[in-house]
Write a structure and sequence with these properties.
alpha+beta; Rossmann fold; 5-stranded antiparallel β-sheet; 12 helices; 33% helix; 18% strand; elongated; Tad_N; vWFA_dom_sf; Putative Flp pilus-assembly TadG-like N-terminal domain-containing protein
């Protein structure tokens, strides 16, 4: 057991300490003070040098960001070198906030050069950090500095083939979304091409979509045997308002596919890169919208007249025939040979226009334009029919190393339009055809450079969830959903599932999309995805997750763009990565 000091002992000790501090005959106090100064300086050095190290690291990151941003900015042809410098400085200050750790920066030096097909930016920035305890030894500040160099070479180490897949659905017309997309896509082109009209070793293509894509004439040009022939429709002049514009129905497929996105279900021809004749795949079927009244989003009279000389051929197209029989019954046919009335379920029959109960509502066909207008009388650029090409977007611009900056920008401005009114948004048909356009260079040929590897890229952008709407029509057997035609025809055609459930159909469309994404990535295609202006609800969250999973890297290759500025940043960021933008020092 220890001894406890008495109160008198404690009092004696306090008195001794007070005597030492009051002493004037000895050097106790000066010695204590002298000893404290180096001790405090050592402590202060540790604290202040630690702060300086953190500030210097932060400043280096800001210099790196500023150099990269400067080069990116200069890639935009509209930016002068001085403007690029300003943008670089803005990035430096954005990444090194005012008074960070009580530091002060001098004006950064940003040097931009565009020489010998290389754009470079050198950033030098310095400043100081105010000390705290080191002030005791006369050191008021510590220096900080950073240097970074970034460059983008015009000569790429690989050939790049980049396909933009752009949402052209009706919802893109709202809130200036299409204008934002045009700006962002053109800035993508600006970054790729810089101030030049051509870009060596770089191929760009564009694929607009809604529920379908327009690639049929590109396929037929490569091999006419790949597409079903439809006399009176596919074999007439393109100047004819009843001629085939080029959209295709989705490929024949089994129903009710598996939920395993890594499994390519046999018989699901609509999810892979196969072409007709490969693995039993049938020929592609030209898209044709039947001459019917459309109950989808807006009520549209799409009943178009067909010249007498072409009626038998046109009404024999399976999609047209099935739609009219389903709509009007089995007694609207005639004997093809003698023209006598005959039920449609008998052999050698064709639909008889004179027996259609609504023939008085048919109207002259219009040359269909995918360019949006406003209202039912917005001639000629509107989507209000009457036309067998109703809802078909612009023909895709295939990948080409000869594409020019002006050509691509012109296509984005003049061919890329929101199709109003619409029948929905189907991502999977667009992704399947993106797969084929990129992967099947034996069909969609391009003048690829030799002796360099090829990097294949798909950049897929949407503003919507999977969706299609058919208000349906009442019949004696219930409500029938058979007027809103998409790449997968109507709900009543049951091409995806055995029933007509909208939710189950969308679920199975999503499964096909996911499988195609995985097949593309397995083939070495790099996928970027951009979800634009999606609602913050369960459906929007599900779409974002679907696109995040589809991307090559869910963290670096997926962009969620809330507004036009975010959308532009996504396209510019991707373009900058594709031109091999890098830090060199």
């Amino acid at each position: 057991m220890g001894l406890v000091p008495s109160k008198s002992d404690n009092s004696a000790r306090r008195g001794l300490l007070q005597d030492l501090l009051r002493s004037t005959s000895a050097s106790v106090l000066p010695m204590m003070a002298a000893a404290m100064i180096p001790t405090m300086a050592m402590i202060g050095a540790g604290v202040d040098f630690g702060r300086a190290y953190l500030a210097n690291s932060k400043l280096q990151g800001a210099a790196d960001a500023g150099a990269l941003a400067t080069v990116r900015a200069k890639q935009l042809s509209a930016n002068s070198e001085s403007r690029a410098q300003e943008i670089g400085e803005d990035y430096i200050y954005a990444n090194f906030p005012d008074n960070y750790l009580n530091a002060n920066l001098q004006t950064p030096d940003v040097d931009v050069r565009d020489e010998d097909d290389v754009i470079s930016a050198t950033v030098t920035v310095s400043g100081s950090i105010n000390t705290t305890l080191l002030r005791l030894v006369g050191i008021d500040t510590l220096p900080i500095s950073a240097r970074a160099v970034a460059e983008a070479s015009e000569e790429l180490p690989t050939a790049v083939e980049a396909l933009l897949v752009l949402d052209n659905t009706g919802s893109m017309q709202s809130g200036g979304r299409m204008d934002s997309l045009k700006t962002a896509a053109k800035n993508f082109v600006n970054v790729i091409y810089g101030d030049d009209e051509t870009r060596e070793n770089f191929a760009v293509g564009i694929l607009p979509y809604n529920t379908m894509v327009n690639v049929g004439h590109l396929v037929a040009a490569a091999n006419p045997n790949l597409v079903q022939s439809r006399p009176g429709f596919t074999n007439v002049s393109l100047s004819d308002p009843l001629s085939w514009k080029g959209c295709l129905f989705a490929d024949q497929t089994i129903r009710n596919i598996s939920d395993d996105r890594f499994m390519m279900d046999p018989g699901a021809y609509d999810i892979g890169a196969d072409m007709p004749g490969e693995n039993g795949m049938p020929r592609f079927e030209p898209f044709v919208y039947p001459p019917i009244y459309v109950n989808s989003f807006q009520d549209i009279n799409n009943r178009y007249e067909i010249p007498n000389s072409r009626q038998d051929d046109f009404f024999s197209i399976p999609t047209v025939r099935d739609a009219l029989i389903r709509l009007h019954g089995n007694n609207i046919c005639k004997n093809r040979s003698n023209g006598q009335p005959r039920n449609c379920d008998q052999n050698n029959t064709v639909i008889d226009f004179d027996r259609l109960p609504d023939r008085g509502n048919y109207r002259s066909p219009r040359f269909y334009s995918h360019k949006s207008g406003n209202g039912t009388n917005a001639s000629p650029n509107n989507l209000w029919g009457a036309s067998p090409n109703y809802q078909c977007p612009a023909e895709a611009l295939p990948l080409s190393y000869e594409s020019t900056k002006s050509q691509l920008r012109g296509y984005i401005d003049n061919e890329n339009h929101a199709l109003l009114p619409g029948t929905g948004t189907f991502h999977n048909a667009a992704m399947t055809w993106a797969y084929r356009l990129v992967q099947r260079d034996d069909v969609f040929t391009r003048n690829r450079p030799t002796n360099v590897p090829t990097k294949k890229i798909v950049i897929f952008m949407t503003d919507g969830n999977f969706d299609s709407r058919d208000d349906g029509r009442n019949t004696s057997s219930g409500r029938v959903l058979d007027t809103a035609y998409t790449a997968y025809k109507t709900y009543e055609d049951r091409t995806i599932i055995s029933g007509t459930s909208r939710n189950q159909t969308i679920d199975h469309l999503g499964r096909r999309f996911a499988k195609t994404c995985e097949a593309m990535k397995a083939d070495g295609i790099e996928i970027y995805t951009i979800a634009f202006a999606l609602n913050n609800n369960a459906a929007g969250d599900a779409t974002r997750e679907m696109f995040r999973t589809c991307a090559t890297d869910r963290n670096t290759h997926f962009f969620s763009a809330a507004n036009g500025a975010d959308l532009n940043n996504a396209f510019v960021t991707i373009a900058s990565e594709l031109i091999d933008l890098r830090l060199s020092q």
